[in-house]
Amino acid sequence: MKDFSYISHLECPKCGETYEETKVQQLCKCGSPLLVRYDLEKVKANVTKEEISKRTNTLWRYHELLPVHSEENVVTLGEGMTPFEKFPTLGAEYGINNLYIKDEGIIPTGSFKTRGASVGISKAKELGVKQLAMPTNGNAGAAWALYASKANIKATIVMPLDAPQITRKEVFVAGGDLHLINGLISDAGKVVAGLVQNQGVYDASTLKEPYRIEGKKTMGYEIVEQFGWKVPDVILYPTGGGVGIIGIYKAILEMQELGWIEKGKFPRLVAVQAEGCAPIVDAWKKGEKESKFFENSTTCAFGINVPKALGDFLVLEGVYATDGCAIAISEEDLLAAQKQVASLEGNFICPEGAATFAAARILREQGWIKEDEHVVCLNTGLGLKYPETVEIEGVQTLQPGQELFVNN
Questions:
Q1: Secondary structure (DSSP) of 143-159
Q2: Which Pfam family, an example, fits this chain (predicted)?
């Protein structure tokens, strides 16, 4: 019988220290996030990409490359294998012949945070965790609270006061221990840090446990598989904490080692941020390896309003290593792109996802993206979760019995 997982150990990408994955681990003693490593030779000997393609359409189809030893500990709502669709009309508008969306809005809880929650909660359950805490801008807290309820783990969630209403309600309806703070996610993080230090609660903050990345990396596996086990030329990703872009880069490296894709062939990774919160963009422009805290950050794309990411050095490493770039998008451009995607292609996407389409258009205009390149934009959430981003104007109110005339 094949092992359910070929996880080997945890490793610090900064100092190289290794840790056991059978015990609760948070950050490395040097303060860096830890990365999960697998026995890839064993995976190679026991699993083929053709075999994986015949499995059930959830992210757990890649279970040998996920960190949970026992299938009975898997906490799942059927997440994964989200739509991967070509956008011909919008592509023609942008001058990109092969423009695609990877639509993470069509997933339980309505956002890509579900992936990290499923894998992170499953491993927490396997490790015997009974209570966790995390700061969030909304969607992550909602996803982790819902999956924690399924795993019978208590979840304490701290989010900014102006986080989207729907995500607060998701935490509440899941029975989560919800707290609101009059500040940013960085302020929420300080509250959680105090709780972790003083009461020994499991810290599920972004990158302070090693397993959220493993859930997010499955987006990389899926894109490549849905693309016929080929690598696209460009992947644009809305970047706040940056776990998705770190995970996608990790997935590409793993697939190269497994021989599932051509070695040395990378998609150019694009970190997309909002002009009101662009620490990664500022660092990339200066060629720096880490970002600086972005003061007074603000954007309607709430999920990427992260003034300083713990894993910023890993995000920048992925961008540099793939000859990618980082770009900041104005509020006007991302909201215009949100409307354009819906009106031309029928997808109501979140503002964070819309930022990637605005970025694709701008990078095509600049010549950085070429006309015939295969370009993938990540939509990280359902637009319906952000009703406040759409202003309805010029709608006629009819009286009962009033005749309606429309322009043909």
A1: HHHHHHHHHT-EEEEEE
A2: PALP
pLDDT in tens, 249-260: 999 999 999 999
Model's pTM, two decimal places?
0.95
Q: Which two tokens stand for residue 103?
A: 């639509």
C-alpha separations of 344 from 100, 141, 393 in Å: 14, 32, 19
Closest CA to 387 of 167, 182, 180, 171: 167
Q: How far apart are CA 188 and CA 180, in angstroms?
A: 8
Band (pLDDT 50/70/90 cuts) for residue 297 is very high
Taking the alpha carbons at both ends of the chain, their separation in whole angstroms is 65
* DSSP output for 266-291: -PEEEEEEETTB-HHHHHHHTT-SS-
Structural domains present in the chain: 84-110+211-383 (3.40.50.1100)
Mean pLDDT of 306-323: 96
User: Cα–Cα distance between 82 and 84 in angstroms, integer?
Assistant: 7
- Give residue-wise pLDDT tens across range 88-131: 999 999 999 999 999 999 999 999 999 999 999 999 999 999 99
Residue 70, class by beta-carbon neighbours within 10 Å (0-12 exposed, 13-18 middle, 19+ buried)? exposed
- Measured at the CA of 211, the angle between CA 300 and CA 37, to 5 degrees, comes to 130
Which of 121, 42, 12 is CA-nearest to residue 75?
A: 121
- 348-354 mean pLDDT: 97
Nearest to 217 by CA among 270, 241, 253: 253
Residues 6+ apart with CB under 8 A from 107: 79, 80, 82, 114, 115
Tokens 């696209």 sit at which residue? 232
Asked if residues 119 and 7 have their Cβ atoms less than 8 Å apart, the reply is no
Q: What is the pLDDT of residues 9-56, one digit of tens each?
A: 999 999 999 999 999 999 999 999 999 999 999 999 999 999 999 999
